[in-house]
Amino acid sequence: MGNKSSLMLQEQDIRDIQAETGFLPSQIERLYSRFTSLDKGDNGSLSREDFLRIPELAINPLGDRIVHAFFKESEDDRVNFCQFVRVLAHFRPIKRTQDNKLNAREEKLRFAFKMYDLDDDERISREELLAVLHMMVGENISDEQLNSIAERTILEADRDGDQMISFEEFCTALERTDVEQKMSIKFLK
Amino acid sequence: MWRAWASRACVLVSLTLWVAGNSWAAALESSSHGGEGGDGNASAHDDVNGSCHSEGHEGGIHLMSFRWHEVGVYYTVTTFVIVAGLCKVGFHQIHWLSNKIPESCVLIILGVLLGVVVFFTVDDGNGTSSCSFNFEVPHFTSDKFFFVLLPPIILESAYSLHDRAFFDNLGTVLVFAVIGTLFNIFTIGPALYGVAQGGLMGTIAIGFTETLVFSSLISAVDPVAVLAIFQELGVNKDLYFLVFGESLLNDGVTIVVYTTLTSFVTMEVISAGQYALAVASFFIVVFAGAVIGILFGCVTALITKYTAEVRVVEPLALLGLAYLCYLTAELFHFSGIISLIMCGLFQANYAFQNISQKSYTCVKYFTKMASATSDTIIFMFLGMALVSKDHIWHPGFILWTIGFCLIFRFIGVALITIVMNHYRMKKIGLQEQFITAYGGLRGAVAFSLANMLDQTIDPRRIFITTTLMVILFTGFIQGISIKPLVNLLRIQKKRSDHKKLNEEINDTAMDHIMAGVEEILGQHGDFYLRELIIHYNDKYLKKWFVKPCSESKLTRLFEKIAISEHYAHLYGPVAMIEDKVKPLVTKSSASKRVRTISVSPSHNDEILLQPNLTLEDDEDDEFEEAETKVIQPAEPVELRRKPSYLPIRRSRVASESSATEPQAQRSHDAQALRKAFRNNPYNKLHYKYNPNLVGEEDQELAEHLHRRHLNARRMTRLASCSRLPVSNIAESLRPKTEMIFGHLEDGVAELVQRHRERRSTMSLRRRPPSLQACFSSPEPGHPMVPSSILRELREVSEPRSSLPDIRDCDSHSRLSATISMRGERQQFFPDRSEGEKTTSPEVTFQNEKLEELVPMVATSNTQPSSPKKPDSENEDVV
Fold this sequence. Notes:
The complex is a heterodimer of chains A (189) and B (878). Chain A has 189 residues and is mainly alpha-helical. Chain A contains 12 helices and 4 strands. In chain A, the strands form 2 sheets. Chain A has a two-stranded antiparallel sheet with strand order 1-2. A two-stranded antiparallel ribbon of chain A has the order 3-4. Residues 1-7 of chain A have low confidence and may be disordered. By secondary structure, chain B is mainly alpha-helical. Helices cover 67% and strands 2% of the residues of chain B. Chain B contains 33 helices and 5 strands. The radius of gyration of chain B is 33 Å and the shape is globular.
């Protein structure tokens, strides 16, 4: 399947990526072919528009935020293949035999945390939470109600009384959630 | 305990005998038309007999007549159902037994006993009188099973399948249900045939197709049996739905293979076309059944959309249409179970949002009651079926069947999990595989299929007996041993606590994230599918089937939390006292000379609680002091305008030397209190899943208490580790805390020490002051006061006279609430605003008395209507 694309991907690159992310070579090749198919302008990197061109992402309420997460490390608002794979590596299932930093529970949680943290200040404020809630809930809920839900949610997780949810508080609030299972994908080979 | 058990057993047995005897007497009497009836059993009916006798000959008015012919059938059936229900009651009274043996086993045993009684009495009747009986003890028939007993159980389980965990495991469940069942059928059958041909089984004449028919009915895991055992087990949801879902969904396979093979038995030549038809019929049976279920589910949703004015028909619409759906599917010989499951799922998804809370409760309770009754009757029927002259025992065949069932079940599960684990995110561990295989119980479905076998099939009676034996083996041996095994293998148990808002929001967020990642990857996996389904469900289906004003899941969760918090704050302190009431009640019998005094200052208003002072006789002087101090305040100030919890009308100070009848008084008080608790509106709020509906009120209260404690603790922690400088807190809170925490700093540390000592020695003489309780851990017996809190309190408070009763706790959480929530207070603690009006405590105690005073609620003068009062405050939150 990835014959053509693998030509452009050097053996060394594959080995480097494999070492860093823990993906199998076959998975990397598959990801690369997906990457090139998304890369409409053949620039070797993806822009936000490239991502948002995926039709299903349009109905995803968090689509924008997810795309944004890919651009965390890039300076020029473009994502190269390495960055692309590194972000996706968060969603590899955790295996006991393999020790990899990228797909640890904390990293998975951090990715989820970043969905709420709109201004990148490592804290979720009430306004941020409200904005994300607005994206996720449908029409049948009043603003007032949503407001109280947001307040209540902050109150529930907030431990140090600053009316914000820090990452530590976020992790504590979700300590019962099976993040390892829920935020993992079976990557095709 | 033994005596109680014996008496209960006696009652049960005599009841059973009475029913049997009565029916027999009635039958005898009707057959001989009241001829002699002089038997001891029938003597009760003598005068009835007389009237019956005269009825036969003369017309005219009769004051009394005996109409067994018309009423008899209903009478016996109803009596039977009631007896079955009573057996359940009896079983749950015998705790040492119910802990070890599953209910189904006991019911089977009782069924056998009843069967023996019926067997001998009816047999005796047959021998003495040659007339025909119109009397019949209900017994197992396939029709009764499939059309009356099974549907309620399936409907109840369909509602319970409306769960995320089930849909997450749906793929594996389906593979288990279809492939696993087929694997079992086509391994057990040939293996049995091989063994029979090999002569290892003893003499048996059995054909290949017949063995396959038998294996098709014995292979299917039974939903009734699985439900009966697994509900008591309390294993984690994934495992539960894996086994239970399989048992439900294998119905389609079982029906098709069974009917196909039974028709093959009579056929001479089987063409290839027949096989193709059999395969096609599988899809028709399953999918047509599912379509019928979906149709009926949607119709229910549409109907309930317009029932806002006629709430009474809502339960009828749900239950009636569900049953009609089952019957429709059965009418065309589709899978009734599958259609009922689909119908139930659609109802749970759409119709439940349309109906009122009370209709929902009604539906839930009715299905639960009906399924519990059906379940009981089915197992008793199975026991009764064991006592029959028709059985042909073939030990070889029975043993080989049991062996093969077990072996191939384990092999099948192992093979399928190996394959499925390849695709699953959450792997099925070895322990869980073992329980899945071991939990493959057989039950009444198999037995009724065996009963339905054509009389022409030769070894029918062997099949029936063997099926029954397999059911008994799986029910008794596996059913009893599975609980220790679950503990031994350390299977993860079911989580019972409630979801938090954070978790709910994040679950949704994570679903979206994962769907988004799958979209970016171009992999259309589970998350993507879920997202798509949810999207179209929200966009179209919900609009059609659900009332526009229905609330989202998040809103409902929020409301639930908000309301429960509201009530927790309204009733929290009262509930907290219950902790102390219970030991008081139980221990009061041991305490001898305790003085009880209801401190009730003269005032016509209602106060929050009446502290009961319990003192030793040798402390009489101090007691007098305390009493005078209690009633001294000239102008008692109203603590709250609206009492938030258990309002009690004040009366004069009632001092009594309770040494004469302390127990009666106490237990009376406690009972009144319990009653008041039960009437607490909070209890009526949410209904939990609870198979026998045991202790619903207590459960709610316990939950409520737990939350209250957690909340109080969290607040305390918040207060103690707030970032604000301590002086600030002290400044802002002084007016309130002055009265609340005055005098604290002297005694708290000492109190903690004393409290611990008391707890450890379980001393009755001195009770911990209530203040202590506010800061202790939620579980009684683990008192712990963080030193930081003590320090904090010391800094915050000033030595002044205070009110060391349960109010402190409330005020304390108020204090913390003030710190942590400021503006939100109004929102979440509506009752707090009332509390702001507090000016000063009406009762003052000397600090030295603090540890002697016991907050105990005197409820003897509780107003019957009092618990309803706070209801009016509900609007604040909802």
